[in-house]
Amino acid sequence: MYKIHELSAEHKTKPEQIIETLDRAYTRIDALNPKLNAIVHDFREQASARAKVLVNEDPSNLPLYGVPVTIKESFVYRNSPCTINFPPLKSYAPDINSVLAQRLENAGAIILGKTNVPMLLSDCQTFGPLYPTANNPYDLRRTPGGSTGGGAAALAAQLSYAEIGSDIGGSIRNPANLCGLFGLKPTTNGHIHDGHVPPLPNRGTGFTALNSTGPLARSASDIEQIYKVCYQPLPEYQQYLDIQTSTPIHNKLANYKIAYYDELAGVQCSAPTQRGLQRVVKCLEDQGAQVSKIRIDEQLADKTLKTWVKLFGFVCSQDFAWPVRKILQFKFGKDLKKSSFDAKQELKKGLSMNFREYSKALREQKECIAEFSRYFNDYDFILSPTSIGPAFEHNHKHNNIEFDGQSYNYTDYCFGFVMFYNLLGNPVMSLPSGIDEKYGLPIGVSIAASHHSENQLIHFSKLLEKQGFEFQAPTIS
């Protein structure tokens, strides 16, 4: 069970194999999911019925013909729970489909089920009051990340072929990083018409900022397949529009100009992450690419991260009354208290932001975007860590993370490197750089591109994958 295009081609040759593939998927889910808690709702009855229909359909125009996939629990999908692990939504099961889920099905995919998420999608781990803790298939004592943690665990354990996730603060990239996968956060594309929760449902209002929806998979080619299917232009909402950029596409890595950094706003990555990053850097240098180490301007990094905190506070509090906002302030403020960057005041402002302050924050965001975009005048792509280190042991109380002889603040470890790009809006791919020889855990590297350069970024990732930066399956059985 590996690549989408190989499976889809096989099914198009022998459509009757669709049912066999589906049965194998659920057999593996039954064997492994109790250890992982990756899939929280499976749809085997309707999936089986759909497979029987697909057998009799013409596969020629169905690029995902018979491919078993999963979707994050936060996407609406007909008559299935969409709780975001939040007790007030325990009974919420809409009768409509997300645009993305519908496009998957229109392309011939079979949705196996929905995957586990943390409460309100607001953690780099996956646990909460409604669903059990999700475990990492490389080490069940560790987290698969969050908030698309269940999806990443399902993919790494080869329960499905692809996952649609969402990312407002690393929620695609961190799980991909911690589970040895490819994960694409596109240019900011979150939209209230995605069929994604939050914003909370049944209110007729909603605002999205900083957020992207995107695919996770076990290969860059699979990312490409899912991206092409799900993110065709949706002109009626001015969404997923195809915008041309100057980022080049070369057939050889030697023709690229690459920058990289390993420290941001005082946050430095661990030795295992440094080793993973250096493996990719050395490969690029050996292939003849121009590679330069850079340092992100400290004032830009500080302003970017603090503006993210303000806008995040505004977005996540939009559905809640003041008492709940105070709870959020305590929850997130506690994590920020010992962080390398002091953003407690920005969080407070975000949770009580008026229109004037919101407009000011948007202006600050535009200023950060304009300043950072200048880096792409000199470089095609920029490499960086995804998190300080690899998957960490379950840590529901957000205590400092002890790793490789160091003690790291929880926010710094999980979010410092990723939320930078949520504010800036750039597309970013998390690429597996290999299994660390000391810890036996996968290490991911982030590759950022200029806005709307997803196709070029995917192509570049495919070139790196051919050099050996590919998914390496865990030994779970």
Describe what you observe in this structure.
With 477 residues, the protein is α/β, with parallel strands linked by helices. It folds into two domains: 4-295 and 366-466, Amidase signature (AS) enzymes (Alpha-Beta Complex), CATH 3.90.1300.10; 300-362. It has helices at 4-13, 17-36, 44-54, 99-106, 149-156, 173-178, 220-230, 271-286, 298-317, 322-336, 344-351, 355-373, 410-415, 419-424, 454-466; strands at residues 39-42, 68-72, 110-115, 162-167, 182-185, 212-217, 257-260, 263-264, 267-268, 290-293, 381-385, 401-403, 406-408, 428-435, 442-448. The strands form three sheets. It has an eleven-stranded mixed β-sheet with strand order 1-3-2-4-6-5-14-15-11-7-10, sandwiched between helices. The longest helix has 20 residues, at 17-36. The chain is globular. The mean pLDDT is 95.
Q: What's the CATH class label of the largest domain?
A: Alpha Beta
The strands making up the biggest β-sheet line up spatially as 1-3-2-4-6-5-14-15-11-7-10
Q: Report the strand count.
A: 15
- Given the structure, what is the number of helices? 15
CATH-wise, what's the superfamily of the largest domain?
Answer: Amidase signature (AS) domain
Q: For the report, how would you describe the main beta sheet?
A: 11 strands, mixed
- Nearest-integer average pLDDT: 95
Order of helices and strands: HHEHEHEHEHEEHEEEHEHHHHEEEHHEEH
Which architecture of the largest domain per CATH?
Alpha-Beta Complex
User: How many distinct domains?
Assistant: 2
The low-pLDDT segments are: none
Helix content: 25-40%
Strand content: 5-15%
CATH topology group of the largest domain: Amidase signature (AS) enzymes
Quickly give the structural class. alpha/beta
- Terminal CA distance: 14 Å
Radius of gyration: 21 Å
Question: What is the molecular shape?
Answer: globular
